[in-house]
Write a structure and sequence with these properties.
single chain, mainly alpha
Length: 470
């Protein structure tokens, strides 16, 4: 199969992916804005947001991972022209997302005492506690929004989530600025103000998403008679069977990166702040791969619904190739600008913070060099994972990601970070090892499954041939 068969798919892949990428970048921007604005207050404040978000990211990964179960069911039903199947997946999925969002808020809120048991600097803990409470509450609208988003994505309407996120950022940035620094009639709340700003912007995001989807003429059938009578055990069970392993996949990866936050926190506040800077930049580039992962999930689900496994492989591989090319560009950027990018996150005019800032920049620059290498592994593993979700294969990938991140990645991070002079850099080398292992084994799983399905399809077609006449 020649290269042109893959590259000709790039245009449609990007058409589907770019709204998802922009939406995810906008969503990430909410957290980035918190860090940029809070970072101007000092390294302790930046570390506090980092520590608080380490809990939020774990909970969010469960919510987002679970909600991805909605997309392949909707996309498959859309390809099959099965309106009741799509409607049922949306209604039941949104119900489950609402319940899960409330549950995650309660869980994180009552985990606040754990901050004092994690060996983090006391000044950081004091600042992180109120921020964590507000950020935890924002999980409710965040996960509900995911229910709407995954439904729209499954119908290949990827622009709607982008519009919602743009609107959310338009609200978030001025509110955050006013509440953090105390502008006009608003009190100066510092780190706590960042948490409140996040809550307000995410509530607005859900309201906007509901209005824009429910008022679309093509989607009226899915919103008509939206009642609890739509909740069915069979659909709930199907979504849970897909969503639970998917949430675990995302949890294992996010928890690995969260462990990096905690490990760097035990090394010192400058290492923790540097980790947060490098992680923020790596997260921005990761959103491009995440957008392509959603595209892989949608397109693979469509081809599965059409029962066209030969074209499914071509489509999937075209997305894998596109992800690799994009991540190579980002890797080069990280190498070229690794000494300059950290400056954007710190107040370089504050002479009182000069010593800390110089140390943070030196550490972050080294971390970005490691991040440059793992861009490619990270991109491959997430797009292949998207393709596997499109095939509704989630259990084996769950085990693969657990082994890659927690049997391979974390022990290396822990040993190099705690017991060697590499410290924060060693922690990130462990992340690289885990991501590379995941990329290799997830691709092998995809290759095995698609070959198996094509052989089964060929066998079924052969058996349907008429018996030769004697």
């Amino acid at each position: 199969m020649n290269l042109s068969q893959y590259t000709k798919e790039f245009s449609y892949n990007l058409k589907l992916a770019y709204p998802v990428i922009l939406g995810m970048l906008g969503h990430t921007l909410i957290g980035i804005v918190d860090k940029l604005m809070v970072g101007k207050l000092g390294s302790a404040e930046l570390a506090a947001v980092s520590l608080g978000n380490s809990f939020i990211f774990i909970a969010m990964s469960i919510g987002i991972g679970f909600s991805t179960a909605i997309t392949p069911i909707v996309a498959e039903g859309d390809a099959e022209k099965d309106l009741p199947k799509v409607r049922s997946a949306f209604h039941n999925g949104l119900f489950l997302c609402t319940v899960l969002g409330i549950s995650l808020f309660i869980l994180v809120f009552f985990c606040k005492p754990l901050l004092s048991l994690m060996g983090q600097p006391q000044e950081v803990i004091v600042l992180a506690l109120p921020y964590l409470g507000w950020a935890a509450f924002s999980l409710i609208p965040m996960v509900i929004y995911q229910g709407y988003k995954q439904f729209a994505d499954g119908l290949s309407m990827t622009k709607y989530s982008m519009y919602a996120i743009v609107m959310s950022n338009i609200i978030h940035i001025p509110i955050n600025y006013a509440l953090i620094y105390g502008v006009w009639i608003f009190p100066k709340l510092g780190v706590t103000g960042a948490g409140i700003g996040t809550v307000i912007s995410r509530i607005a995001m859900v309201v906007f998403m509901h209005l824009i989807l429910s008022n679309n003429k093509k989607l009226k059938a899915y919103f008509h008679e939206f009642t609890f009578a739509e909740i069915k055990k069979t659909t709930i069970r199907k979504i849970v069977n897909l969503g639970l392993p998917s949430s675990m996949q995302m949890l294992f990866e996010v928890a690995l990166f969260t462990s990096a936050v905690w490990l760097c926190g035990t090394i010192g506040k400058t290492s923790q702040a540097a980790n947060e800077i490098a992680l923020s930049l790596a997260t921005i580039t990761f959103m491009f791969a995440m957008g392509l992962s959603v595209t892989a999930m949608i397109r693979v689900s469509n081809q599965k619904g059409l029962n066209d496994y030969k074209n499914l492989v071509v489509v999937a591989r075209s997305i894998f190739l596109l992800a690799i090319l994009i991540e190579i560009v980002f890797a080069v950027c990280f190498v070229v600008f690794h000494n300059y990018l950290p400056h954007f996150f710190l107040n370089m005019d504050n002479e009182m913070q000069a010593l800390d800032n110089n140390e943070v920049i030196a550490i972050a620059a080294k971390l970005l060099l490691v991040a440059a290498v793992f861009q490619i592994s990270d991109g491959i593993q997430v797009v292949v994972l998207g393709a596997l979700r499109g095939l509704q294969d989630v259990k084996i990938p769950m085990y693969i990601t657990f082994v890659a991140y927690w049997v391979v990645g974390f022990p290396i991070s822990f040993y190099l970070g705690v017991f060697t002079e590499l410290k924060a850099t060693g922690v990130w080398i462990g992340l690289l090892a885990g991501l590379t292992a995941a990329a290799i084994f997830l691709y092998l799983r995809f290759n095995y499954l698609t070959k198996k399905f094509m052989l089964e399809q060929e066998k079924a077609a052969f058996e349907m041939l008429p018996e030769p006449q004697i």
